[in-house]
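Input record, target 12 of the design panel.
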């Protein structure tokens, strides 16, 4: 993939649709080799490639840095967790996995209630859905869960008075992420993973025809 042609909108869309359930890369690989980018275009391409390839590592690192900033504020930790959950719900793969596990768990206690958690059936015309696919969580549109978790986290931030602390912690976490993505030399695995994701995306689009 030519990362120079990838826009910020394409990057956000790819991170939203990609599978986040894969484990993080090993620390030995994460801190393996660093070098200065030779040009601005090389830096731009490297930044996008590393952000996509090490996405799980960066997500864990950001949460860890934010968590360290709230060791003396338990409510802020809960607020940070809810904020992270609301952001994770925006990812299609995470939302679908969360819905499946929640429905499977509820089925063990109440099959009747679990049946109500299934998403509504969409009308199909000539083998295709008549409307754009909507992500459902526990039988409700995804935006409802994002709204609920966001509102709950906002209230906890307000009660704990930890908003300023999280802004500092978030700034440090984002700076550490950008610095690592800028100087970490992309390896062969990153390029192979990119090609594999491209193939999966093309195959998925082909199977939907």
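The sequence produced for target 12 reads:
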């Amino acid at each position: 993939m030519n990362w120079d042609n990838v826009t910020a909108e394409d990057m956000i869309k790819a991170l939203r649709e990609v599978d986040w359930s894969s484990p993080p890369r090993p620390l030995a690989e994460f801190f393996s080799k660093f070098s200065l980018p030779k040009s601005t275009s090389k830096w731009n391409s490297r930044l996008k490639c590393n952000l996509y390839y090490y996405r799980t590592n960066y997500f864990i690192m950001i949460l860890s840095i934010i968590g360290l900033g709230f060791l003396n504020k338990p409510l802020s930790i809960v607020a940070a967790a809810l904020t992270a959950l609301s952001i994770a719900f925006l990812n299609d793969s995470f939302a679908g996995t969360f819905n499946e596990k929640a429905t499977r768990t509820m089925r063990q206690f109440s099959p009747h209630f679990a049946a109500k958690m299934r998403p509504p059936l969409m009308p199909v015309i000539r083998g295709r859905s008549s409307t754009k696919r909507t992500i459902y969580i526990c039988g409700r549109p995804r935006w409802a869960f994002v709204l609920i978790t966001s509102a709950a986290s906002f209230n906890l931030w307000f009660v704990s008075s930890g908003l300023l602390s999280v802004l500092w912690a978030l700034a440090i976490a984002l700076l550490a992420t950008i610095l690592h993505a800028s100087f970490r030399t992309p390896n062969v695995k990153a390029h192979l993973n990119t090609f594999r994701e491209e193939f999966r995306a093309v195959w998925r689009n082909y199977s939907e025809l």
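Residues 15 and 52 are 7 Å apart (CA to CA).
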